[in-house]
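Following up on my earlier thread - several people asked me to post the actual chain instead of describing it. Fair enough. Here it is, all 545 residues.
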Amino acid sequence: MRGAAHASRIVAAAVVTLAATTLTACGGGAEDLGSGPDGVVRSSWGDPQNPLEPANTNEVQGGKALDLLFRGLKRYDPKTGRADDMLAEKIETTDSTTFFVTVKDGWTFSNGEKVTARSFVDAWNYGAYLKNNQKNAYFFGYIEGYDQVHPASGEPTATTLSGLTVTGERTFTVKLSQKFSTWPDTLGYNAFAPLPRSFYDDHAGWLAKPVGNGPYAVKSYVRGSQMSLRRWDGYPGPDKAVNGGVDLRVYTDNNTAYTDLVAGNLDLVDDVPAAQLRNVKKDLGDRYINTPAGIIQTLAFPFYDARWNTPQGNKMRTGLSMAINRAEITSRIFRGTRTPAKDWTSPVLGVEGGFSETLCGDACTYDPARAKKLVAEGGGIPGGTMKISYNSDTGSHKEWVDAVCNSINNALGNDRACVGNPIGTFADFRNQITQSKMSGPFRAGWQMDYPLIQNFLQPLYYTGASSNDGKWSNEDFDRLVDEANAESDTARAVQTFQRAEEVVRDQMAAIPLWYQNGSAGYSPRVSNVALNPFSVPVYNQIKVA
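Reply from S.P.:
Thanks for posting it. Predicted structure:
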């Protein structure tokens, strides 16, 4: 998402702007929600940070809606995460640089417009063009001509990517600026979704009521309150909805959403708050889900602030990492829904995919004496006290941030070394981050956009990358990533990515905290509820009693 990213890139769980009391009032009752195949699922949601343009959505909440509305050339298997063909009839290459794409016939958008090769090419050109200010523009950076449509500085000299060429109603070619053997596997990410002409012809109208080509169509959308989606019976894909629709309801507090779930006013909460974990089995029994997901939580640093970007700063940052007792915090606060991080990826990748239990090593091992020594050798904490910033609106971060600070303070023998710095809303928090206004470490994380080790590294740490919020830059890392992307052998590519990850470790570009499981709870009114490897509910498979 991220990742983007897109990861979704994660940029964390609930975002919101409407008062919880207001939403709870409209959440009561089940009138007009139907039952059986036509029943509507009531699910908690967080208001997206940005308008729901596919190339402008790089956080979890917006990604949930796009996953209901769109299907791309590829789709990630909801159980394995494997990149399977969806609208792609075939994607062929002989050199890992030029790809020949054929779009399946018979697909339309929910407004009846046919999905063609141009539906993809126009959407990608829109996403890449600098003046459209799309958050996910970076994902088109491998396509030839990106430097002309999205220069690092100055005005663009082209409006379309020279590497994209429509060759027929259902065919187009993509020429990359470098070899990227696994590039087709990235195409299940929402930034690569096709768009109908109405997106361009009536942009404001489309944003108010998005039109896609997925299994659901928007019935109504009130930003900050609710998006109501209903099954689109004309959907031609193999993953048709088995329910009548989904109401995504905005909550300002996950605890309020959980209370509504237990009271029967909600059917699904896909982020059970830490404060409720002690009660969840008693409240929900087998209707509680706790499963591994492609999510890692980290502490990021503002490398644009010279105080945090000194020649010996890597020692100080490594010392802070070693001052965090991950095992105690995940056990005491998260009760089995988090696992101490041992690298910068996720266990869902598997060893063959690049996950490593040993890559972080001592740098992720709690060692108070060594931590204190390294922080001192690294010049100490800038200003003597660091503030860990986090959004306070969901009620799910204060407890662990305080615990991290207590661990650091105890290890360093200084009760003023670390304090939490709550920021009112997720939107305010993200805006300060994207405007490079952080003065100290801040809560960060990543929900994979696609199941490749590349996605856990490049969008977050490559110079100028879309989700490199701390503005870290390292020539060795960038070079190794470029080499890995050019590898045609997957195993060698993974090994090279891990060498790049070792640079992240040695410089402690971000402190890995823990891997996050997907957690969810659901009501007796629904069944067949599951989370995919991205920790997003597989809405189309949910059955209503």
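The longest strand covers residues 288-300. That should answer part of your original question.
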